[in-house]
Amino acid sequence: MVIAKTKPLEEIFGMIRSCRSLLIVGCAGCTALCLEGGPREVDGLKDRLGALCKEEGSPCRMEGITLERQCEMEFIEELDAIEGDYEAILSLACGAGVQFVAERYPRKPVLPALNTTFIGVNRAVGLYEERCRSCGDCQLASTGGICFVTLCAKSLFNGPCGGSHNGRCEVDPEIPCAWCAIYERLKGQGRLESLLTLRPPMAWKNGVRGLQVHEDFKDRYGR
Amino acid sequence: MNGAPLQRGVDRDKLKAMLRQKRRMRYFLSFCASCGLCAESCFYYRKHGDPRSTPAYKAVNTLGVMFSRKRTLSRDDLEGMKVLLWGKCVLCRRCYCPFGIDISGMISWARSICRAQGIYEDYRKSSRGL
To answer: In B, which residues are within 8 Å of A39 by CB distance?
Structure first.
């Protein structure tokens, strides 16, 4: 899922300083799961921002609402009836959600309350680990399910580098060496020959906007 | 709007206002012929085989109950719906109805109504949800 982190309160306040009315919009999708953008966090942010506004002498009327997801227009529609009453919208969604809300209300400032940090896993409640850089060319089949793009400090395609020491990374000894982990995993699976295949340089696609059309829907969208 | 999580009871005015807000939801409920054809489109039902996991069951026993018992519905009733609304549905929106009923729309609206009463899934308690 997408992991996000709430921006410092002062930064958020800086964005809304001149607003006299603000709609705080949570997202019950990924950011709720990582405890940053659900109804509870909307209420908490509303209280903290309200207190700060009062302290700074810039009163602002605030209301909170949480949508099912902000990455689907049908759910964003729920705001149509109320968004007109507010000067700005503060979104607790990932960057994609913020942009989709902004697209629906182009005349209204839509502000991000969170920093989208990574695609990760839920190790335990409140503990998230990055596992995917959405590079667009998944190599996990030949690395025993361990992503070197994400977990190797140098994102080395043909590792390990010379800095690996006792299974630790030279960048930070606290970090396990991804390529050592790959070696151990493949050894356990009897697939060490996978390491002998040289990987050509990646055609990095993160520089362009991602767009994906499911095979079954290509006719519908003409792509 | 988000309700206060600690409040007890039900904000009945808000409940009734939200039930009036999307008129099509009432029509959807009246159109449902209980044919059960939506069941096969639900991966959760297909995995567990429990009739209480079918999309129609989830919609009728949450949003349907909100409509039929809007005057007497208690907070415990709404809390009890969490199992169906969040525990047995991931809102993948793949449920199919031959009559064109927007079942996932009904479930998401029932979730919105619950959230407005301060009732929602608490992910702090467990990473696995309920």
So the answer is: 2, 5, 115, 118, 120
- Neighboring chain A residues of B62 at a CB cutoff of 8 Å: none
pLDDT band at B130 (very low <50, low <70, confident <90, very high): very low
- Out of A38, A63, A126, the one facing B1 most closely (by C-beta) is A63
Is B122 among the domain residues?
Answer: no
Phi, psi (rounded to 5 degrees) for B63: -60, -40
Residues from A contacting B (CB-CB < 8 Å) are 26, 28, 32-33, 35, 38-40, 42-43, 63-69, 74-75, 78, 81, 122, 124-126
CA torsion angle A50 A53 A54 A57 (round to 10): -160
Q: Extract the tokens encoding A216.
A: 């079954």
Q: In what order do the strands lie in the sheet with A127-132?
A: A2-6, A114-124, A127-132
B54 phi, psi to nearest 5 deg:
-70, 145
For A99-131, the pLDDT digits (tens) are: 999 999 999 999 999 999 999 998 888 889 999
Q: Which chain B residue's Cα is nearest to A63?
A: B1
pTM of the model: 0.86
Give me the residue from A65, A69, A124 closest to B1, CB to CB.
A65
Range(s) of the domain holding residue B72: 35-116
> What is the DSSP track for A76-123?
HGGGTTTGGG-SEEEE-S-HHHHHHHHHH-TTS-EEE-EEEEEEEEEE
Q: Is residue B53 part of a domain?
A: yes
User: ipTM exceeding 0.90?
Assistant: no
Residue B112 domain flag: yes
Residue pLDDT, tens place only, B2-55 = 654 445 799 999 999 999 999 999 999 999 999 999 999 999 999 999 999 999
Size of interface A-B (CB pairs under 8 A): 52
Domain count, chain B: 1
Question: Could you give phi then psi for residue A64, rounded to 5 degrees?
Answer: -120, 145
| B107 within some domain | yes
